[in-house]
Model the fold of this input.
Amino acid sequence: MATTTSSIYASYTQQVAIYVGFPVLIAGIIGETLNIIVFMSLHTFRQNSCAFYLLIMSCVNIGQLLSGLFPLIVMTGFGIDWTTNSLFYCKFRQYCRQVCALISLSCFCFATIDQFLATCFRPYLQKWSNIKVARRLCIITSVIWILHGIPCLIYFNLIPSSATARPSCTITNQVFSKYYTYCYTAVFTGYLPVSVVALFGTLAYYNVQRIEYRTRPLVSKDLDLT
Done:
């Protein structure tokens, strides 16, 4: 009975990976590509700091789809795990997936902060919302996350599984394993970006509400004069 249930579950997972995963992958790549085309083709967006953050995020999102979702679909849907056949791919996939995810989340946070700064009433805060700052932040952040991912190239290795005797791409250093679980997964890709987006998104919304509240009396006066 347990074997039958397990085989049914495996078959269901395989069908979902093929018939749901591939459309999601294709739609994601097409959507991000269209974003890149729009952000690069219009002059208004090329000089906009928020659009620049979203442009970089779209670029790395494609890398994240290809390094994260695509191998997962192939492994779950067709039973082909490239990470167990190549040590280089085992290390490179984890490295690329981590770097792309962190750059993407950083740009998303920067875009939210940028909207807060752009809607502020204080000029010294508004001046930080510009394309030069955006470019420098993206370069610095990308370098930091590229260097941050180097331990993935060192500590991810192919280790034979005790149950199946097949190699598995896992972390071989206990300290890095704890850091990967509690810092990278829980903080950098979990609580921190959610908290930043929620905080500055709320502040930006509050600024927009204040702008509307201030401009409403002026509109009323204009209507009274006419």
